[in-house]
Amino acid sequence: MVTAIKSFVHSLLANPLRGVLTLLTIAVGVGALIISFGLSFETGAALERSLASTGRRVVIANASLADDGTITRQMPSLFRADTGGILERDYERLSHVTPVSTARWQRISADGTSYQVRRAFAVGAGYADLMDLTFVSESFFSEADAETGRTVVVLSESAARILFGSPEAATGRQVQTAMPGLVRAAGVGTRMGSTQTPFTVVGVYADLPELTREAYGVGDFLIPYGVNLPRGIPAGLDPSAVLVGRLTADPPERAESRIRAILELEYGDDVAVAVWQGAPGGPTPLIEESRRAVSSFVMTVNALGLLILAASSIGIFSVMLVEVVNRTREIGLRRAIGATRAGIRRFFVSQAVLYATGGAILGTGIALAFYRAVGASLAPFFETSGLSPGDLDLSLPGARPVFLAIGAAVVVGALFGAFPAVSASRIPIVDAIRDDNA
Question: Who contacts 320 (Cβ-Cβ below 8 Å, separation ≥6)?
């Protein structure tokens, strides 16, 4: 090995440009591989941490879900006000269960100006904890607000800025919208209709990432569940009502079977249950699709890193070929004084490994220098899988990616160096000693 090290140093000094370029090409491949491995491992770990800490937010509907996404709701609905509590009590992996229903808001007016409503929902008081909403002004409404039917509303930050200029300015202000109820009509007494109802803003939550908002159907306007219904109509009869909860460990398919078994004990064998991950209105596989896209992206980057490493290691092959040609006479003399073919192969493979190791060390330095910048540039892409920049540790790639990339470089370097080494060991002694290149 000492002889191989001396020969390696001599080769670098004899032709420094060739040696440095070879080391740099290997370094680029190793650096790319470390960065891709690091991002791959960190993304996978972050997704696991996210599922372990927050679980999956799933929708539980008293309905049947067809393969094409069509939802057939059971009428009348068997879900009651205590259904969520029953599920939380009997299903240890389900928590934060809260009712969600469309608020049926089409337009609202504020300060005399009318606006089109993008999305509005009536939700339970636990919805803020379920969706991990953070508030930039005041807070969410309480369970008492829902029980008493107070006409209060929580806005998204973007909605508050559009309507009132800022989240702080929105708190305590009112928005008006048409709500269903009994109205008086001349000559016919009372009939079902709609009246303009004022809602007081009690809180403003920070905007969620666009993917999260779309995937889970989070509304810009959130009102207490039940306030959206005409007075006197039981909330359990709301045809658009579903339950939304947080599921840990179990996939939605297993949860559906468990929930159906629990509810059949309560309501009988004819209860229909559908569970999906997505928005209340129906399955929206954006989260899973984006996570698969991120996984495919990471695999592609890893494969690209391996290809770059393999391409850069071709330099080792060419260097070793040149070494064999230039040292053919030396090979013959070594064989003549007792060196074995295996010894010759080890000598040249060791040199190739030294080139690979030297390039890998340089590549590690490159990866450490650029890892944070590359990770930051790709952070918006990772957000499509539901990960925020705060979920990812982009400071250093970690020890495992470094060792794997260096190991891959050494293995590839040894393989590329083995071909010239085998060729050198097969040169007849007499031909090597008489070599004209000596």
Answer: 348, 351, 352, 416, 417, 419, 420, 421
| Residues β-bridged to residue 166 | none
For 264, what's the count of Cα atoms within 13 Å in the CB-facing half-sphere? 10
For the chain, how big is the Rg over CA atoms in Å? Answer: 34
Find the helix packing angle between 399-425 and 16-54, rounded to 10°.
140
340 Cβ contact list (under 8 Å, min separation 6): none
Give the C-alpha separation, 276 to 257, whole Å: 12
pLDDT digits (tens, 9 = 90+) for 52-99: 556 788 999 999 888 777 888 888 788 887 899 999 999 999 999 999
Q: How many Å apart are CA 295 and CA 43, to the nearest integer?
A: 9
Average pLDDT over residues 125-152: 92
C-alpha separations of 60 from 35, 241, 281, 282 in Å: 41, 10, 11, 10
Q: Give the residue extent of every domain in the chain.
A: 2-51+289-433, 75-271
What SS3 state is found at 123?
strand
Angle at which helices 341-382 and 399-425 cross, to 10°? 150
Cis before residue 76, ω within 30 degrees of 0?
yes
For residues 92 and 72, the answer to whether their CB atoms sit within 8 Å is no
**Which residue type does 184 have?**
R
Question: What is the per-residue pLDDT for 189?
Answer: 46
Tokens of 211: 């993917």
This prediction has a pTM of 0.64
Rounded mean pLDDT of 328-348?
75
Could you report the per-residue pLDDT of 5-32, keeping only the tens digit for each? 666 666 666 666 777 777 888 888 888 8
pLDDT surpassing 70 at residue 145: yes
Q: Is residue 51's pLDDT more than 60?
A: no
Question: What is the Cα–Cα distance from 62 to 79, expressed in whole angstroms?
Answer: 7
**What span, in angstroms and rounded, lies between the C-alpha atoms of 28 and 216?**
41
226 within 8 A of 179, measured Cβ to Cβ: no
- Residue by residue, DSSP assigns 58-79 as EEEESEEE-TTS-EEE-SS---
